[in-house]
Specification:
The complex is a heterodimer.
Chain A (H helix, E strand, L loop, with lengths): L14 H9 L3 H20 L5 H17 L10 H23 L16 H11 L3 H11 L5 H8 L3 H19 L9 H18 L1
Helix pairs in contact in A: 1-2, 2-3, 2-4, 3-4, 4-7, 6-8, 7-8
Chain B lengths: L9 H8 L5 H13 L1 H17 L13 H9 L9 H10 L3 H35 L5 H7 L15 H9 L4 H11 L3 H5 L7 E11 L2 H14 L3 E8 L7 E9 L3 H9 L3 E11 L1 H27 L4 H33 E10 L12 H57 L1
Parallel strand pairs in B: 1-5
Antiparallel strand pairs in B: 1-4, 2-3, 3-5
Classes of the chains: A mainly alpha, B alpha+beta.
């Protein structure tokens, strides 16, 4: 149909407006929020936990928490940040539970799937080599598409720290994904060194 | 390597590429990036890393909202005073049984559609036959054509999302996904539409109609049926030629094809053209810029909220915030305008009347001719008298003067002539 390409156009109602409507009692607004964030939140849990069922359960729990806490919600932050903050709390609780229930030393790597392609396995292994906060920052940026400010709010870090760690994690990941290349002579380190050198020169002057 | 070569930190370059750098630093980063191949290589490496990470895709969630969510939603009425009185009464009447009532309503609506489908189909076939048949019956067939059936889901009570859709008359990927959730469709099907192009559609149509008034009335009926509106309409009625209607019609893009088909039946098509402008990249670019501007705005707000400093610094941030807000509003308006243009197609239609000049050759009667001749004779006599009077009045005084002057010399000459003749 000729109109297939234009049906997607929409004057989108903002998440914050939907949340306000939901606080006012509108179930439709909640259904809209659910439709918007069901997939992204499921992806958030799916990439960080083992098993699709558990990811689905936690996605549902996130929305359940939104419903229960809707009276206390204040529009100080974006709804998206609010949702991911709840999701991160649930993820942390889930990890604590897994750690408690599993015998010491037998905790398997979280994201594991037998039918994953080699490229995905390679990426996951590379990500697991990163430090936990840096990996989280990188994943929030790459997969959840959050802004630096949103990540900073979630991780309770300054924005500049988020930027630095994100850069570091990307450069480290580049080395992990291409082990044959020596990271020492990468363009990044060259640029960084040159900036440091320039600073030293200017200070000396 | 020195500072002149790399005045920008590599992480700032990364932030610039992601639209996360302040405007001042972004200009410097852009200028440097143009001329520094080493930094271009760095950006390329970062992009490669991001692209590699995108290979890890996650399947779509399978399940609908859990029973716990449905229960919590049912119990969630924090602001019942905001609920419309009519809806409150329904809720009080239905209580917690509203899902069952909604289900029963949906079943009833489906049954109604199934029962009423055969007559509708029969009527549709009549319509097709009429359009193929004589041209004179086409107009009535168009008027009798069945109106588009409303979405079945809209008939189900309690389906608020569909009410929202009806009010917006548009659909978004997110709403389509929510619809998929309601209809147990796979979201992947709808994700494909997210990559569909955005096209501003425009059509021009020129018609020649035998019955102008009828065509105009039917044009308005057709437009109403397709939920369109008139952007502009002009009717030119000059003597000696047929009337002309020029109108700019706006209609939902998915209705343009049907609207064109029906409008063409109003007369003989003189010319027709259609065009489509793909604005997908412009729209995506605009959205990205809007997102960046909003991020900047949020950062500035955070800065004002969390940081303390000199008054001049605060004022500077305020000024920057005002500027960014202006940009956001401008881009938002631009985005809405573009979305409106895409969602509503434009049809420029011109309907000219099939004008037939009438030659009236009726010979006048004898009495009329005699009467006309008498009137003409009287008018000529009166004109002659008036003309003579006018001549005398205008030249009489001069003639009298010259007569008085020339009378005595003429008389003397005359007497001499007579005396000479007598002698």
């Amino acid at each position: 149909m000729v109109a297939a390409g234009v049906e997607i156009v929409e004057i989108m109602i903002s998440d914050e407006a939907l949340m306000a409507e939901f606080q006012g009692g509108s179930q439709e607004a909640f259904e809209e929020l659910f439709a918007r964030y069901r997939g992204p939140l499921y992806g958030f849990f799916r990439r960080r936990l083992r098993g699709d069922q558990r990811a689905d359960d936690l996605t549902q729990e996130t929305f359940l928490a939104v419903i229960r806490a809707s009276a206390r919600y204040e529009p100080r932050a974006l709804v998206r940040t609010y949702l991911y903050a709840i999701a991160m709390n649930l993820l942390a609780a889930e990890r604590r539970k897994l750690f408690r229930d599993s015998p010491p030393g037998k905790i398997a790597p979280e994201p594991a799937s037998h039918d994953a392609p080699d490229a995905v396995l390679w990426i996951r292994q590379a990500l697991e080599r990163l430090d936990e906060p840096e990996r989280e920052i990188l994943m929030l940026r790459e997969y959840e598409q959050l802004s630096y400010a949103e990540i900073a709010e979630l991780m309770k870090l300054p924005v500049n720290a988020v930027r630095s760690r994100l850069f570091r994690s990307r450069m480290a990941l580049k080395g992990y994904l291409e082990p044959e290349r020596k990271t020492a002579d990468t363009a990044a380190t060259g640029v960084a060194e040159s900036v440091k050198q320039a600073r030293a020169e200017s200070e000396a002057i | 390597m020195n500072k002149i070569m790399h005045p920008i930190e590599p992480e700032e370059l990364m932030a610039y590429v992601e639209g996360e750098l302040t405007a001042v630093r972004a200009n410097a980063a852009a200028a440097h990036l143009v001329e520094c191949e080493e930094c271009q290589g760095l950006i390329a490496d970062l992009r490669t890393v991001s692209q590699s990470l995108q290979a890890w895709k996650v399947e779509a969630p399978k399940t609908a909202p859990s029973a716990a969510i449905a229960t919590a939603l049912t119990e969630h009425r924090p602001a019942s005073q905001n609920v419309a009185p009519g809806r409150r009464i329904w809720r009080e009447v239905l209580g917690k049984r509203w899902p069952a009532v909604a289900l029963a309503g949906a079943v009833a609506a489906i049954l109604l559609v199934v029962i009423s489908a055969p007559p509708l189909q029969r009527r549709g076939s009549n319509y097709a036959y009429s359009t193929v048949g004589q041209a004179d019956t086409v107009d009535s067939a168009v008027v009798r054509a069945p109106a588009p059936a409303p979405p079945a889901a809209a008939a189900a009570p309690g389906n608020g999302l569909d009410k929202l859709r009806q009010s917006a008359k548009l659909q978004s990927p997110a709403r389509r996904e929510s619809k998929a959730w309601l209809q147990n469709q796979s979201p992947e099907e709808h994700d494909l539409s997210a990559t569909a192009p955005m096209i501003i559609r425009t059509a021009d149509l020129s018609l020649i109609a035998k019955e102008f008034d009828k065509a105009r009335a039917q044009l308005e009926a057709i437009l109403k049926r397709h939920r369109g509106y008139v952007g502009e309409l002009k009717v030119n009625d000059s003597t000696g030629s047929g009337r002309t209607l020029t109108a700019t019609l706006r209609v939902s893009s998915d209705q343009l094809g049907a609207l064109l088909t029906e409008v063409k039946m109003l007369g003989r098509v003189d010319s027709e053209s259609q065009s489509g402008q793909d604005v997908t990249s412009q729209y995506v670019d605009l959205q990205a810029r809007l997102s960046n501007a909003r991020n900047t705005e949020q950062r500035l707000i955070d800065l004002l909220r969390n940081r303390t400093g000199k008054l001049s610094d605060v004022l500077e941030v305020e000024q920057e915030l005002d500027q960014v807000r202006g940009q956001v509003e401008q881009m938002e308006a631009e985005r809405k305008n573009m979305a409106n243009q895409v969602s509503f197609a434009t049809l420029n239609v011109t309907i000219a009347e099939d004008y037939k000049a009438q030659l009236q050759v009726v010979p006048p009667s004898t009495s009329t001719r005699l009467s006309n001749a008498a009137v003409e004779g009287y008018r000529s006599m009166a004109d002659g008298v008036v003309s003579l009077l006018l001549f005398l009045l205008s030249t009489g005084p001069s003639l009298l003067l010259w007569g008085a002057i020339l009378f005595f010399p003429a008389r003397m000459v005359w007497k001499r002539v007579r005396s000479s003749l007598a002698s």
